[in-house]
Amino acid sequence: MTPRAIFFDLDDTLLDTSGGVQEAWRSTCAAFAPELGIEPEALEHTIRDQLVAFWKDEAAVEHWRTRLHDARRHNVASALERLGLDPTAAPRIADRYWDEQTTRMRLFDDSLPTLTALRSAGFRLGLLTNGPAEMQRWKLARFPIAEYFDVIVIEGEFGQGKPHPRVFQHALEAVRAAPEEAWHIGDNLYADIGGARRAGIHAAWIHRDRLELRDDLTDIPDRVIAHLAELHEPLGLGQAEHHA
Questions:
Q1: What does the pLDDT read at residue 242?
Q2: Quick one: residue 5, left, alpha or beta (phi over 0 = left, psi -120 to 50 = alpha)?
Q3: CA distance 4 to 242
Q4: How crowded is residue 232: how many other Cβ atoms within 10 Å of its Cβ?
Q5: Cβ-based neighbours of 105, under 8 Å, separated by 6 or more
């Protein structure tokens, strides 16, 4: 059935926060490598290896999601220690990386057109995002999308994050929709797809042409899309139908 409510993840679904990560770390490491007496490539490689290993098990590090700046500093310090370098430089390196990354964030080209079309068609919209309240509110202040949503659920404000069922239940209650009347679109198979499916919501996984489905998945999406434009036809966008 055609839903009456559509929920979205923020990072790497509507907002490209990962596209500039490599460049941001490269620039940051190039700036600090001379001071540390190491080649920039070695510094970057060790930091990024540390981060990948740290975030691999999302369930195990769930409590870090609302302390992302602290987590970044912790991981940079661990990487410096692995290299036999002074870890006291970690806060400056981590903070410089954040400054570099924020200049590279951008809305995906299809985000505003899709949100505009959904609002015009009468869908009720929700934004469900994990992470610290201050950081996520900063993104919403910088990028003009908050006005499109009937409900915004931020982990750092709400007290729970995806995939916890209460996040999805709260959003459903806010837009007055039953689970079978809603879709959730997100890029994270654990938090977005697993969480939505366990809440009885149609789960659409968006990979943005840079993620791949693994063979050992436990959370299988109901729908797989590369870009938001692929939602327009199944949702009847362009038709005059009202879904309120």
A1: 43
A2: beta
A3: 9
A4: 17
A5: 15, 16, 17, 20, 139, 142, 143
Cα–Cα distance measured from residue 20 to residue 105, given in angstroms and rounded to the nearest whole number: 7
The full DSSP string for 90-131 is HHHHHHHHHHHHHTT-EE-TTHHHHHHHHHHTT-EEEEEE-S
* Spatial distance between the Cα atoms of 77 and 90, rounded to a whole number of angstroms: 5
Using the CB atoms, write b or e for 106-132: b if 16+ within 10 Å.
Answer: ebbebbbebbebbeebebbbbbbbbbb
How does strand 151-154 pair with strand 202-206? Answer: unpaired
The predicted model scores a pTM of: 0.91
Taking the alpha carbons at both ends of the chain, their separation in whole angstroms is: 14
Q: Find out whether 216 and 38 touch, Cβ atoms under 8 Å.
A: no
Give the strand order in the sheet containing 202-206. Answer: 151-154, 124-129, 5-8, 182-186, 202-206, 223-225
159 touches 134 (CB < 8 A): no
Check if the beta carbon of residue 174 is closer than 8 Å to that of residue 150.
yes
Angstrom distance (rounded) from CA 164 to CA 193: 11
Find out whether 89 and 80 touch, Cβ atoms under 8 Å: yes
DSSP state of 230: G
Q: For residue 182, give the nearest of 191, 173, 172, 190 by alpha carbon.
A: 172
Grade residue 28 by pLDDT with cuts at 50, 70 and 90.
Answer: very high
Mean pLDDT value of segment 219-227:
94
